[in-house]
Specification:
149 residues, alpha+beta, PH-domain like, 4-stranded antiparallel sheet, 41% helix
Length: 149
């Protein structure tokens, strides 16, 4: 049984970014609303950081999941909504591993699994534990459904 959980370092960095962005937005909002003539960049900072913070919080809470793979099935637990979705191994339509070279020494890897009900499961190497074990399992069990990227 392979259990892939969110990487603690990734959660920590998302949390630090969310906390610092909230402080910066609050500080600029207090300046913008309390000053008789606020500077233009206070509004610009608020306008820039609010959507970015919203996306980070969405990724942090609503897309957080624990994935269990084994016994010819995929079980996905959505941690925030407490929902559970189970797929059999036959319901995998295709899977692919995307590898993007970020710099000369590092690469970004993401695994995309598409099920027959058109739902996608994306697993990033930096975001989840047990990434290599999942790729090995898929190559062993579903080698014919791999789509080369």
């Amino acid at each position: 049984m392979i259990i892939a959980k969110p990487n603690p370092q990734t959660l920590f960095s998302f949390g630090i970014f969310a906390l610092s962005s909230t402080v910066i937005i609050g500080w600029n909002a207090s300046i913008y609303f309390s000053s008789p003539q606020p500077m233009w960049y206070n509004f610009g900072i608020i306008l820039l950081l609010v959507p970015i913070l919203g996306y980070v919080l969405y990724r942090l809470f609503f897309q957080l999941k624990r994935i269990e793979i084994g016994n010819n099935q995929f079980v996905i637990y959505f941690l925030f909504s407490r929902k559970k979705k189970t797929y059999s191994i036959e319901s995998v339509q295709r899977w692919t591993e995307h590898v993007v070279k970020v710099s000369k020494t590092s690469t970004y890897k993401e695994l995309e699994i598409v099920f027959t009900d058109k739902r996608k499961l994306n697993i990033g190497k930096k975001e989840y534990t047990q990434y290599e074990s999942i790729v090995t399992y898929l190559k062993k069990k579903l080698a014919g459904k791999e789509l080369k990227a």
